[in-house]
Structure formats: C-alpha cells, structure tokens
Design a protein that fits this description.
Helices cover about 40% and strands about 10% of the residues. It is an alpha+beta fold. A three-stranded antiparallel beta sheet has the order 3-4-5, with no helix packed on it. It starts with a helix and ends in an 18-residue tail after the last helix.
Length: about 190
C-alpha cells in the first residue's frame, strides 16, 4: 500500500512539474513573441539591422538582424559642419551611422554575442540602460538617434519581453566602432 501511495505521489509530482514547465515554456514563448512585436513596432531594425539595397531601397538583412553597423564598413564622405550645433544632422544611407553635434554614433550590436553584443548583459542591466540612457546601465550616454525618452515609459513587463526576444535571436559577432566625439573626427 505504501508503495502505491508513494508511486501515486511521485507520478503526481512529475505531472505537476511537467505542467509547470509547459506553462513556463508557453509564457516564455509569449514573452519572446511580445518582445519581437515591440522590437519590430519600435523600429529597432531600422538602425540596428544592416541593410541590403534593392528596388524598394534599403531593406533589413534579417540574416544579420540587430547586429549593428558592420565593422568593416567605410564611412562615406561627410560635411564636418554637421558636428556644429544648429547645423544638419546626417546619417548614412543604411541608417546605421549618425553625425551631429555629439560626434559620430554607430548602431550597436543587440544580439546575444558575448564579446560584441549584449550577451553578458543581465536583464537588470538592460532595463537600467533603457531607463537611464547610459550604456551598460551606468556608462557613457546612449547617443542619438537612440530613443531612450520613448523607451523609459515602457512597463517592466515590456522591457523584459524585449530583453527575452533579444536573448532568443542568433548571436552575431560584429565589433561596432566606438562613438567619436567631435574633436576625434578626422
């Protein structure tokens, strides 16, 4: 009798655990799906995904999604007056490099690559970065055109969904150049 009771308890425990795991998988899949929707709707691919050019103009190259400005890409010639306040803000045709009074900023690698992307960032560091506009939560300011003013208002659940989605995409090794301050622009 004790063996039957133990076996029944063990079977119930396994069933409850597998049901909880299935619920966690479903909620994880739902969280990732919401994050994908927010990343797409928020226009993250506009700057952070390299482009291919065709009849419709620049189109995100989803084989390199969210990997940032390609490291080997050369900058086109630019009008250095854009570095002065009150002048135009410039961008490259692929929308991955921006020039203005802050200097030159490059779209970051948002993939989970541990050396060149966000792979070592925790969820807390990611959320802190999005809320305060500081790289890695407390580093240099995130530079234009990053829209931290818009991201700050997202509820924690949406921030967690974006983070979950970014963790779910393939890691891509791509060293994005560091921003350049106006005096460093050659």
């Amino acid at each position: 009798m004790k063996l039957i009771v133990r076996t029944a308890m063990f079977a119930t425990l396994i069933l409850a655990s597998s049901t909880a795991l299935a619920a966690d998988d479903k909620s994880s899949a739902d969280l990732i799906a919401r994050g994908e929707m927010l990343v797409t709707f928020g226009g993250c691919h506009d700057c952070h995904t390299p482009k291919t050019f065709g009849p419709e103009g620049p189109v995100p190259d989803m084989t390199r999604q969210l990997s940032g400005r390609p490291a080997d890409q050369k900058l086109p010639p630019m009008d250095k007056q854009a570095l002065t306040p009150g002048y135009w803000v410039l961008m490259t045709p692929d929308l991955q490099t921006f020039v203005g009074p802050w200097g030159i900023s490059f779209a970051a690698n948002l993939t989970p690559d541990e050396q060149t992307g966000l792979g070592l960032w925790t969820e807390d560091v990611f959320i802190k970065t999005m809320r305060n506009g500081k790289h890695a939560g407390d580093g240099r300011p995130l530079l234009p055109p990053m829209t931290t003013e818009n991201l700050r208002v997202l509820p924690d659940g949406d921030m967690k969904a974006i983070y979950a989605y970014l963790r779910s995409i393939p890691p891509i090794k791509n060293v994005v150049p560091q921003p350049l301050a106006p005096p460093d622009v050659k």
